[in-house]
Design goal:
- There is one protein chain.
- The protein has 99 residues and is mainly α.
- It has one domain.
- The protein has five helices and no strands.
- The longest helix has 18 residues.
- The radius of gyration is 12 Å and the shape is globular.
């Protein structure tokens, strides 16, 4: 399994956040991380998942503006280019899943 599986779980959460990407509240980030961990596929230890999901939340919050998140929330399914940006933003977090 790869980090892409985890990000697929986190994508709906990111588009639901009502705050500016650069100004995610601690609560919004915490919710993102909790949902990311809870929705992760089997096979990962919780510390690995938490590290990955925390990293992904930070990276995604730095990449997406509020307008972009709102645009993604209106699209069903989300735009593939936006999904790819999300994957790219969090790609450096994949090393957090290694034992």
């Amino acid at each position: 399994m790869t980090y892409r599986h985890l990000l697929a779980v986190a994508l709906p959460l990111a588009v639901a956040l009502p705050v500016s990407a650069a100004e995610w509240s601690a609560q919004a980030k915490n919710e993102f991380v909790q949902q990311c961990v809870a929705g992760a596929p089997a096979g990962y230890e919780e510390p690995q998942l938490r590290a990955y999901c925390d990293c992904a939340a930070t990276k995604v919050s730095q990449e997406f503006t509020e307008a972009e998140l709102q645009e993604m929330s209106r699209q069903s399914p989300p735009d593939p280019a936006m999904q790819q940006r999300m994957m790219n933003a969090s790609s450096s977090c994949g090393d957090k899943l290694k034992p």
